[in-house]
Specification:
238 residues, Tetracycline Repressor, domain 2, Arc Repressor Mutant, subunit A, mainly alpha, 12 helices
């Protein structure tokens, strides 16, 4: 019979996963190292071998989560060929990252509310670099007349991050405000919420093409970004 105990190579990864889950559910103070170790299937001294203190573990969880974007965003922007494609790529990746594990959003929300002074340096180190890239792209789009002239790029990016994190973190709570939604159909409810979130973000950023521009783009290229919107929003994992 195969053992359920984690192997040596995946222990740090599992510690970070279980710490994310328990910190999100109970808060940093409420989740003990003993409980996290038990959830992984190891003893507390083994956990402390990888993360010497609870503060080190918390920092490891947050840094792993936030540093994900420093490589991901530039890659997505480089692969896309238009402003709309860049928006869809980054927005979809951001939403799906939190939807596939809502504890990420819940933990970030808890930490930002409970320890704003400690979170600020982490945000500056791991979030600011890629938000600067996004802001520069929006400035370029504004100069080209593709996004609203009165938009504040830096404030827009900050509000969209807030919208995604808070929206996903409180998705279950706010399901009561979605007519027709039931807890038995969580996937459909999540799909509706994500679709509307992206629609709001898209509408706040881009200028709709005039009927003439849309017609010309459609005549020249049926799949032109000016003539069509993406057919579907990202689907959260089952």
């Amino acid at each position: 019979m195969a053992s359920d105990r984690p192997t040596r190579t995946d222990i740090p990864k599992q510690i970070l996963e279980q710490a994310t889950r328990l910190f999100a559910a109970r808060g940093f103070v409420g989740a003990s190292l003993r409980d996290i170790a038990k959830a992984v299937g190891i003893r507390k001294p083994s956990l402390l071998y990888h993360f010497p203190s609870k503060d080190e573990l918390r920092r490891g969880v947050l840094e792993q989560m936030l540093s994900h974007w420093n490589e991901t965003v530039p890659r997505l922007l480089k692969a896309a060929t238009s402003g709309h494609e860049q928006f869809e790529a980054v927005a979809s990746e951001t939403v799906n990252f939190f939807v596939e594990d809502p504890d990420r959003a819940r933990l970030l929300l808890r930490e930002m509310l409970d320890r704003p002074e400690e979170m600020q340096p982490l945000v500056e180190a791991h979030v600011q670099p890629w938000t600067k890239i996004m802001t520069d792209y929006i400035v370029k789009g504004r100069e080209q007349g593709r996004v609203h002239a009165d938009i504040d790029p830096a404030a827009y990016v900050a509000h969209m991050i807030n919208l995604v994190v808070c929206g996903v973190a409180m998705l279950d709570t706010f399901s009561a405000l979605t007519p027709g939604a039931t807890t038995d159909d969580k996937r459909e409810m999540t799909k509706r919420q994500v679709s509307e979130l992206l629609r709001v973000a898209r509408a706040a950023l881009f200028i709709d093409p005039t009927p003439e521009e849309a017609r010309e783009a459609s005549d020249g290229d049926p799949d032109s970004e000016a003539g069509t919107e993406p057919e579907s929003s990202p689907h959260p994992p089952a």
